[in-house]
């Protein structure tokens, strides 16, 4: 029988393992969980609420913005910004940094992708919210600027994601392991369902868009062909699993083992995925679960950021699988 532990209770328990904690991070995480409940409410009824379809605008990525992207972005900014705990925010949907509605008083920075994989919303495929939290680099919140958003992933104090799927789950880490919570709509709470998630050392799934075959570099093609060869001793051939929704693909591989790759391609020479609010938070979670995350050569969380929306190739998942993939890249 699962102990009925809410995510708020779990945040508090985690705080107790940090004697120096002031409780501020706990408050931030509670704000994020609350925002997740607001987004969930709309996502799960998207087909009914006439909020499907293009909002007719495009985001900084030049991608069509669906109404739910816009909604999720606004909800997160307002639901979290109103308490003044964050001095600054950065979102996939906003070109520049966001100063929360309340004046800059908090000592933290929130970077997030409000609704990743949103192109899947209309066909009822899982989508997700990804978040990453840093401390300000200086002491004066009113002086916070974009440089506070450009810290290495290794400086994150917390990271997580919400997956809006067959059930809605929130998964997070503060550096003390990875913990998953399943939303119970009958009580409106995220309840602990996956304590101390660890990723298998090696998996049997690989996730890559094989439709980009013509754009892949030969080293990536060689690795994928290696995975397709028959060799029981090394658990091959692997099975391919690619949903086209990063959070959904990552979450499956986190629980079952495997590797997700969005490599450098001819169309995306720096990869497609974003370092600050996609690769870094998932890398923090993956490493805390015992996995590995690199750009094919360098640890994701060691990359020195230069731009808020910069892209990176991403090899993430079971340690043995990522190491094997890297061996083809050298
Ligand atoms: P492709 C969704 O648009 C997304 O940002 C990620 O969620 C997903 O992993 C990736 O792009 C899919 O990209 O080029 O395979 O369609």
Automatic annotation (TrEMBL):
Binding, Mg(2+) 2: 113, 116, 278
Oligomeric form and interacting partners: Homotetramer.
GO molecular function: fructose 1,6-bisphosphate 1-phosphatase activity
Membership in a protein family: Belongs to the FBPase class 1 family.
Name of the molecule in the record: Fructose-1,6-bisphosphatase class 1
Cell compartment(s), UniProt: Cytoplasm
Organism: Prosthecochloris ethylica
Pathway(s): Carbohydrate biosynthesis
A Pfam family annotated for this UniProt entry: FBPase
Protein keywords: Calvin cycle, Carbohydrate metabolism, Cytoplasm, Hydrolase, Magnesium, Metal-binding
Enzyme Commission number(s) from the entry: 3.1.3.11
Positions annotated to bind substrate: 116-119, 209, 242, 272
Domain Fructose-1-6-bisphosphatase class 1 C-terminal: 199-328
Entry-linked Gene3D superfamilies: 3.40.190.80, Fructose-1,6-Bisphosphatase, subunit A, domain 1
Free-text remark on how the cofactor is bound: Binds 2 magnesium ions per subunit.
Essential cofactor(s): Mg(2+)
Known catalytic reactions: beta-D-fructose 1,6-bisphosphate + H2O = beta-D-fructose 6-phosphate + phosphate
Domain Fructose-1-6-bisphosphatase class I N-terminal: 5-195
Residues involved in Mg(2+) 1 binding: 92, 113, 115
